[in-house]
Amino acid sequence: MTKAAVMGSGSWGTAYAKVLADAGTDVMMWARRPELAECIESRNENKDYLPGIILPERLHGTADPAVALADADIVVLAVPSQTLRGNLESWKELVPPDATLMSLAKGVESETLLRMSQVIAQVLKADPSRVAVLSGPNLAREVAEGQPAATVIACPDSARAIALQKACHTGYFRPYTNTDVIGCEIGGACKNVIALACGMASGVGLGENTLASIITRGLAEVTRLGVALGASPATLAGLAGVGDLVATCTSPLSRNRSFGEALGRGGSMEDAQRAAHGQVAEGVKSCTSVRALANSYGVDMPLTNAVHQVCHEGQAVLDAVQQLLGRSTKSE
Ligand SMILES: NC(=O)c1ccc[n+]([C@@H]2O[C@H](COP(=O)([O-])OP(=O)(O)OC[C@H]3O[C@@H](n4cnc5c(N)ncnc54)[C@H](O)[C@@H]3O)[C@@H](O)[C@H]2O)c1
Ligand SMILES: O=P(O)(O)OC[C@H](O)CO
């Protein structure tokens, strides 16, 4: 029997842990707060992040990372991007040496501009062939409700990718494999930034033409960055690119879109954080790290730059719109 440790009990960690358990994998999920671990273990519910969703009996909760990680074949990292390094530092002695390490986080580390798979390989001194990422149009609540969705599992080692695919394939969750880790990670991190832009546009009252233009030109700039880093454009045209971009940019369930919408309505950063239900909207930090990464590769990302200026330099959304439209014209 495959055993997975899911490290992090937020919305997506919990929803994905449920998928694994529904697929027949034994799951031990780690929560930071003992009372939440206890709720998951004894009430089969994560009342803070996914209230009303009954978790399978095969899914257990603990606040002890040693208990979660003991004998795990798969270690799923489900904490926010900017805390992943610190978490891994404290867990590194507990991670089984041959376990496959899978990142769910969608971000680029602020201080180092590293992708999450690079952070994992660096901190755990793991060969990159052991590190996988999962990314796609996977809004946690919908997946937890069992609504059909597809995703991509990318790993340089195809055999590990196939084992991971088997461990989470259910009647409602369809994982595809891929070896393009860079493309999946760049798609996942950057779509959060584009979703912030869509939310901002919606918040100031702009309509569907604007949103479609942002999504499409957003995809163009994300693809430019991905290709510069070595990704395949086909990955960004797939579930981890277009798929996730569309889901996140259009759904009211997206924390990033909701955050941007609150800013567009004239709210403060604090108002926007409340609109994201107090949960992590990764794009708020990633807009800065993605922009820096793009600059270091000489890649132009005007939408990402605009989102950074609104979130961190006090620019008004309508001024950012004018600035974007005032750029020199070019061919598509
Ligand atoms: N929610 C979704 O629909 C969804 C879907 C796909 C991917 N993701 C990605 O998955 C990652 C996790 O997202 P989430 O939705 O579970 O986030 P979340 O905000 O719901 O939960 C994050 C979890 O990490 C914990 N946490 C926060 N700071 C921590 C720290 N310093 N140390 C340890 N734990 C800490 C929180 O207590 C919480 O349990 C993000 O990168 C997100 O972009 C989310
Ligand atoms: O709620 P968000 O904005 O973090 O987006 C959720 C997922 O990443 C969608 O795939």
UniProtKB/TrEMBL annotation:
Residues the record lists as binding sn-glycerol 3-phosphate: 106, 136, 191, 244, 254-256
Listed EC numbers: 1.1.1.94
Residues binding substrate: 106, 255-256
Localization terms from the record: Cytoplasm
GO biological process: carbohydrate metabolic process; glycerol-3-phosphate biosynthetic process; glycerol-3-phosphate catabolic process; glycerophospholipid metabolic process; phospholipid biosynthetic process
Transmembrane regions listed in the UniProt entry: none
GO annotations of cellular component type: cytosol
Nucleotide-binding recorded as keyword: yes
Keyword Cytoplasm part of the UniProt annotation: yes
Reactions listed under catalytic activity: sn-glycerol 3-phosphate + NADP(+) = dihydroxyacetone phosphate + NADPH + H(+); sn-glycerol 3-phosphate + NAD(+) = dihydroxyacetone phosphate + NADH + H(+)
Domain spans labelled Glycerol-3-phosphate dehydrogenase NAD-dependent N-terminal: 3-159
Entries under InterPro entries matching the protein: 6-PGluconate_DH-like_C_sf (IPR008927), 6PGD_dom2 (IPR013328), G3P_DH_NAD-dep (IPR006168), G3P_DH_NAD-dep_C (IPR006109), G3P_DH_NAD-dep_N (IPR011128), NAD(P)-bd_dom_sf (IPR036291)
Any GO molecular function: NAD binding
Protein name, as recorded: Glycerol-3-phosphate dehydrogenase [NAD(P)+]
This protein's encoding gene: gpsA
